[in-house]
Specification:
6 helices; 26% strand; 39% helix; two-stranded antiparallel sheet; six-stranded antiparallel β-sheet; Chemotaxis protein chec; 145 residues; alpha+beta
Amino acid sequence: MFGGVSSLLLDSKGRLAIPAKHRDALLVRAQGRLIVTADPAGCLLVYPEPEWIPVRDKLNTLSGAQMPIRRFIVGQAEEVEMDASGRILVPPSLRQRAQLDKAVALVGMGNKFELWDDAKWNATTDAVMAMDPHELENNMQGIVL
């Protein structure tokens, strides 16, 4: 399971160095093969390939009014592979979609990662911290910490 937030930099070619604490798990789980796709929230999703397959299959059952979501997520999915240095090349079209320039946040979300522009990630977390305590309590109903 992937967790934590890593503040990282994309290099001039758009490569992202996967933090050492995640590299071995990604090599074992997916032989370094990852799927990167867009998320409607404005970030990128980064899945180890075996974790992506059931998500893709579930998305491929969507039809009707849900087709735009299917097209958005599945249609933009790109396979990438970690190089010998543990880096992945984030596809240019996806970097543009998520407005990734240099400073990024890689957020472990259990079976996948979210890749955010660092400023957007900070704004997102600041918004949670600024929530009214009663609203936050209502949103946390049923969640045990």
